[in-house]
């Protein structure tokens, strides 16, 4: 696609964006009418929204439009999965400057579509307007399949804490990029394009998870949400937290304890949940700690101590906090 | 609320925004978790999203934050109603500059909440981030109550065209404001705060409407969407289009044929629909035209002629076009 968004025109842009969407089973009526119609077989729909602004949530010199699309979709679809629901559909609100190359929003849509496909969802509709700053607003919907939603407030003393997915990889990749490097690729890729374990959310609900969230702000911060909502303390065992050798190498190179990335790095969208004590956890779930009776803050400890290194507790006040 | 958004902090802002939300029957799980849960008794959910940017879609010197909130919510909730669905819930994505007065987003939320209440819906969740330009992204959800969605594509030759709600009032109010005046108030108010006839959408579906849309881009433009999607021509009778005396006075004062506002003015969010010929229309539905076999473009005529005055056909290429 040659030329700018302004040259293509907004009608033309909408036509091109719509042409890139593929069918999805849950999308009964897609773009082109006043509203979309999405299947909600459970008679309830799970819904979440995030808004991303260029310069604050993504950088065009660090990530391709395709990767921004995948990541923006992933963070919303992971929120749906973290309720124990299966993602069904996504809606996109997009602000683009007239002088932006038309390929950018089209590749963004390709990324959104492919991430939706990975999660089993489809693009149901959206809105495109002109504005000075690229802004991507995504709303994701999901279906609970007749299970109760798994909230942040159900953890009970005695429960085990387990995680499924990557921890600290995006943060390590960010540390690499921030220093002007482009490798190791696995970590840079993890920062550009997280891979949330979508199926883990509904599976955990099926297994009787008592509380659940996705790790978007960092493991300590997100478990802090659970601990406060559930009125419990959570203690993590550092020996159970996997620090890959290559992550340690990056830590040595940039002078950061890699455990900090694992504990405080967000954006990998791992799924962390609490389970009744004797739950048999399937492959890829790692036990990383336990739920204890409440104490005065802090609500989350590591090896029974406060994690107080830089960054450890700053993420509570995050702009991505759900409304 | 004193101080700026930056002084209140984003965590504080979220707390204040959430405190302003009231319960709604369809919102089973509101803000504060990874995602909301909204009732969808029909087993399908109607969903639509719009994104509004300051300077392009609203002006802070013309509209209060409260009015921006009501209007932003109204345009999405009207889209839900125009499918024949009853609005159930709304999600908000909000970008605010740190230096913005904290009262602005709070009054915006009051407006969104009150418009939701008028439509029978509730605020289910959202996201707030900092950025240079105030941007309001809204996603509205609705329930079809076991009726099929009324799309734009079902109009048949012989059907009657009828409208419920206001036409041209917002455009007349805009003309007044653009010339620096603040009255007549009724029209200025109509521009600042549309009053879509939410109940008219589900009622039209119940009555067997064959196609329906809300008038967001202008009557001719929106009926053009129906005519093209349904492969028909639509002819309006100008004598049936109500031009209030006060609107004629404004037209005289500013040198505009007020029929142009009625035919091409958007943002009042009237509901326009086509019905089988002998449908008995209830109060507040006005017959304004008929559906005819297709012709070469233009697809919409007024008194069997092309409406070719300035503005008459420019709105097709609108930024608010659904994706």
| Helix vs. strand class of chain A | alpha+beta
Through-space gap between termini of chain A = 37 Å
Going by CATH, the architecture of the largest domain in chain A would be: Alpha-Beta Complex
Would you count the extended β strands of chain A for me? 12
Number of domains of chain A: 2
What's the number of helices of chain A? 10
What would the principal axes of the Cα set say about the shape of chain A? globular
Oligomer: homodimer
**CATH level 1 class label of the largest domain in chain A:** Alpha Beta
The order of strands across the largest sheet of chain A is 8-10-7-11-9-12
Q: CATH homologous superfamily of the largest domain in chain A, by name?
A: PurM-like C-terminal domain
Task: Outline the low-pLDDT stretches of chain A.
Answer: 310-323
Protein name (chains A, B): Thiamine-monophosphate kinase
GO molecular function, one term (chains A, B): ATP binding
Enzyme class (chains A, B): transferase
Pathway (chains A, B): Cofactor biosynthesis; thiamine diphosphate biosynthesis; thiamine diphosphate from thiamine phosphate: step 1/1
Q: What features would you highlight for this structure?
A:
323 residues, homodimer, Phosphoribosyl-aminoimidazole Synthetase, Chain A, domain 2, 2 domains, ATP-binding (chains A, B), 10 helices, six-stranded mixed β-sheet, 23% strand, 12 strands, 60s Ribosomal Protein L30, Chain: A, kinase (chains A, B)
